[in-house]
Design brief:
Number of helices: 6
Largest sheet: 6 strands, parallel
CATH architecture of the largest domain: Sandwich
Shape: elongated
Number of strands: 18
Strand order of the largest sheet: 3-2-1-4-5-6
CATH class of the largest domain: Mainly Beta
Radius of gyration: 21 Å
Distance between the termini: 37 Å
Oligomer: single chain
CATH superfamily of the largest domain: Probable inorganic polyphosphate/atp-NAD kinase, domain 2
Helix content: 10-25%
């Protein structure tokens, strides 16, 4: 892998110690003799203070360093205009399931990765389009999942689901999760879905508390196209409330007969990783598999 020379840096917007963290990473990168550009929106103060150039689009970068938790990564992926730019993730959140390193390790890890020692870990993203007739309510990509769920009132929702134009089921449930393999270790897992290796091109449909005990999560091939129609009716108390939530951050309010189209994007998000890091080692460390068991 060729070395990276033109590096962008972005960070979690509301990080308390944002400026000091950016300055620390900036010093490490500059010691690696690379050109550093800071996110014009989220790192402007440091850019002005340190007299460092900023960027507004990632198209001219060799690598984008993302500082924050998984939520920051989700936001970055949704905003990406060029999926060919690799991401190097530095955890400054809670779990940091997708993070490659943290701020304390950065001085040791970054020089090796920037010199070309790393590997690219490619992850599928889910292309989602929400439509009301011919009107597009939302169109974009998510890294983990799109979730259709009940609104403010506790009631079941009815979701007619088709795969490749073939009827799958009408789920009567608290909701339905459409997840990528990357998202299989998140909300889908908590709702009883399977863990799917990220190299397995697929999508996972996980009903949330289905009324029918026989309705279980199902994994479909990566070239599938999924359509979900909202069938939940209005009742005498209030209008139907169904929400589409995207990677747990943004949402769209849906009405009866709105349709969600989902399929895997033909492009992947690329994460720069250390060679020794594997999906299984992440499961052991982040999910604490095997703790308390004597070999």
């Amino acid at each position: 892998m060729p070395p990276f020379r033109r590096i962008g840096v972005t960070i979690k917007s509301d990080l308390t110690e944002r400026d000091s963290v950016v300055e620390k990473i900036l010093d490490i990168l500059q010691n690696c003799h690379v050109e550093v550009l800071l996110d014009a929106e989220r790192c402007l103060h440091v850019a002005q203070h340190k007299h460092v150039s900023s960027f507004t689009e990632e198209k001219d970068l060799d690598l984008l360093v993302v500082i924050g938790g998984d939520g920051t990564i989700f936001r970055t992926v949704r905003e990406l205009k060029d999926f060919s730019i690799p991401l190097l993730t530095i955890n400054r959140g809670a779990v940091g399931f997708l993070a490659e390193t943290d701020v304390d390790e950065a001085a040791e890890v970054l020089p090796r990765l920037l010199s070309g020692e790393g590997i690219l870990d490619e992850r599928n993203v889910l292309a989602v389009c929400a439509k009301r007739g011919k009107k597009i309510l939302f169109e974009g990509c998510v890294l983990n999942e799109a979730v259709l769920s009940q609104g403010t009132i506790a009631r079941l929702v009815d979701l007619r689901t088709r795969v490749n134009d073939e009827e799958l089921a009408t789920f009567r449930a608290d909701g339905l999760i459409l997840a990528t393999p990357t998202g299989s270790t998140a909300y889908s897992l908590a709702a009883g879905g399977p863990i799917v290796h990220p190299r397995f091109s697929s999508m996972i449909l996980t009903p949330i508390n289905p009324h029918s005990f026989s309705q279980k999560p199902i994994v479909v091939p990566g070239d599938s196209h999924i359509d979900v129609e909202v069938l939940t009716k209005e009742n005498k108390f209030r209008d139907v409330e169904v929400s589409l939530t995207l990677d747990g951050q943004s949402y769209v309010r849906l009405q009866r007969h709105d349709v969600i189209h989902a399929h895997l994007n033909d492009k992947t998000v690329k994460f720069l990783r250390r060679k020794q890091d594997t999906f299984f080692s992440t499961l052991r460390s982040k999910l604490r598999w095997g703790e308390g068991v004597d070999a």
